Amino acid sequence: MPPVELHVGIVGAGLGGLAAAIALKRGGAKVTILEAATELGEIGAGIQIFPNVSRYLLRWGVDEIIGDNLVEVDEVRTWGLNGEVVTRVDSKRVKRICGFPHYIARRDHFHAGLTESARRHGVDIIVGARVNSLEYSPDSVTVTTTKAGSYSFNLLVGADGIRSFVRQQLFPEVTPLAPSKVAAYRGVLTREEILTKTPEAKSVLTNTMDMWTGPNGYIMTYPLSGGKELNVVTSFCKDYYVEKMEEVDIDEFRAYYKDYSPAIQSIIKLVNYTQRWPLLVMPPMETWSNEHKNVVLLGDACHCMQNHTGQGAGTAQEDGVFLGRVVSEVVRGVITIPEAVGLYEKKRMPRAWTKQQISLVSGELNMCSDPENLAKRDQASSPEAVLPEDGSRFPGLLPNYRSWQVFDSPDSVPGIFYYDAEGDADNAVCEYLQERDRENGEVDSLTMVSKSLSRKWWSAVDYNGID
């Protein structure tokens, strides 16, 4: 079948929207991003880029654009309240067994890298284009913006975040909830400031990521900007459900961590947080799309999650990569837009809900307050816990044990770290075509090859897309 001309609109130029734009453009679609802000940028501090996402930075050349501002730590450590390390994860081993690195970056550096990559791919990014109306039919989607006029698309992607305008038009009754009483506090300190004001905190300024866990809260630190800065993000369980951003008293905040080790307390004394961030979660939705399946949601617009696994933005980027891959088969004439969106929902919705659940449990593990469970948790990652009862060791081998720490360990969450959204999307299309052909009798009587699958692979002969 001849290639199909397809114009995809994306509402929102955040990390998920930019990843979707790059993937869709690589799949052969024309892509336009409509961004409400008048200048592109990203708020927040540091961000985790685990192997399920870093693979796309390498494929798309984003790692080269960001350059030295990407950080690879040597080790990720979890500290107990007694000042002892209770889990260790070797980042070099993670890279070896996953095939891709665990990166850390400032959100604005990461965003700038994706933006530049999107532009190099040929994505049209329009700023100052806040969408204020949405209309659709089976054949097209039209949006009107406040200042930038109207646009019509074959497919519209709502990647406009937790307060999504697109979601409100499709599902006005759906709102994110606060399922726990945990709130977050975040900011960045410079290395120079730390060394000047609190030289006793020098031990924290290593090329490691560290998490100090304690009852009802935790502190996480890691280097940014090539080691020139230190990201400090903390969580604490309040006595009420935090549902919106609030002002916080700095003395109250510092008191949350009064029992932590002196080194990390000296860091906490330097931060001057003034805001408490809610950690909202979107309840599972029955669908992410309209009835025609030509308007679809992505990222926080449909599955915002708590931050305890560092997978919120990563999951949005997986969404974008998966969607780009299945839509590439629409461009090739293999499937239709509704079929592509249906596959996207079928595969991505349960995966996102699983990650939402993992994040909630990860928070419980790190903020464990029950003494008995706390002792079991810390013992669970002890190498001695897996040795034979007689205490013997296998010659030449180190003990192989799993970390209870979920967010940083491929041994605990291989389904996250090893995941490739492009491969998953391609396999989803193949499974769909096989099943459809079996039902319709479209299978070669001699070879038993699905005729649609054969056409899918033959279509690559005449296809001149970026892939």
Automatic annotation (TrEMBL):
Recorded GO MF terms: FAD binding; monooxygenase activity
SUPFAM superfamilies: FAD-linked reductases, C-terminal domain (SSF54373), FAD/NAD(P)-binding domain (SSF51905)
Pfam families associated with the record: FAD_binding_3
Gene3D superfamilies cross-referenced by the UniProt entry: FAD/NAD(P)-binding domain
The species this protein was found in: Exophiala xenobiotica
Signal peptide: none
Keyword field: FAD, Flavoprotein, Monooxygenase, Oxidoreductase
Protein name per the record: FAD-binding domain-containing protein
Coiled coil ranges: none
Family: Belongs to the paxM FAD-dependent monooxygenase family.
Residues in FAD-binding domain copies: 6-354
